[in-house]
Amino acid sequence: MTRTATPTSEELVPGTSPDASQGGRRRVLVVDDFDDAREMYAEYLEFVGFEVDTARDGMEAVEKAQSSEPDIILMDLSLPVMDGWEATRRIKQDLRTRDIPVMALTGHVLAGNAEHAREAGADEFVAKPCLPQDLENKIRNMLKPSKARKREGQEG
């Protein structure tokens, strides 16, 4: 499901538009099998100006990452069909999708999970529940041009 609601200028804080450096709205793929969490994050991110697509399982996430080329992926780790660990591995091993930042989200904060998520290829690890505004701030920080240049091996 692709969402395309566009906030009015009054809804965005000046200078914080996610599309400022790209010429278009930044795309976020929200992957979560829990409908309420997926919809809450998707609706909030739309409200603050992102274009949002959603997936309910890891296989759908891999397919949508390949077809829609999001700017960032929010990946729950506990998913049906294919878990978020394996989906992240596949995304990071695919030449078409390996440079897309993946933020791992999980409610299972166990010792070592953050390290395992990074080993699978996640660029960031966030414990749920996470306030939507905090998640937005993390997304914006991950999408800053300096981080993209560093990912590509350039100095920034």
List keywords for this structure.
alpha/beta; six-stranded mixed sheet; 6 helices; disordered N terminus; disordered C terminus
Task: Quickly describe the structure.
The protein has helices spanning 35-47, 58-68, 84-93, 113-120, 132-142, 145-151, and strands at residues 2-3, 27-31, 51-55, 72-76, 102-106, 124-127. By secondary structure, the protein is of the alpha/beta class.
Topology (SSEs and partners):
Blueprint: E1 2-3, E2 27-31, H1 35-47, E3 51-55, H2 58-68, E4 72-76, H3 84-93, E5 102-106, H4 113-120, E6 124-127, H5 132-142, H6 145-151
Parallel strand pairs: 2-3, 2-4, 4-5, 5-6
Antiparallel strand pairs: 1-3
Helix pairs in contact: 1-5, 2-3
Distance between the termini: 35 Å
- What is the string of helix and strand elements? EEHEHEHEHEHH
Radius of gyration, taken over Cα atoms and rounded to an integer in Å:
15 Å
Give the amount of beta strand, in percent.
Answer: 15-25%
Secondary-structure-based class equals alpha/beta
Widest sheet, order of strands = 1-3-2-4-5-6
Outline:
globular
* Structure annotation, total helices: 6
Number of E-type strands = 6
> How would you sum up the major sheet?
6 strands, mixed
Can you tell me the residue ranges where pLDDT is under 50 for at least 5 consecutive residues? 3-22, 147-156
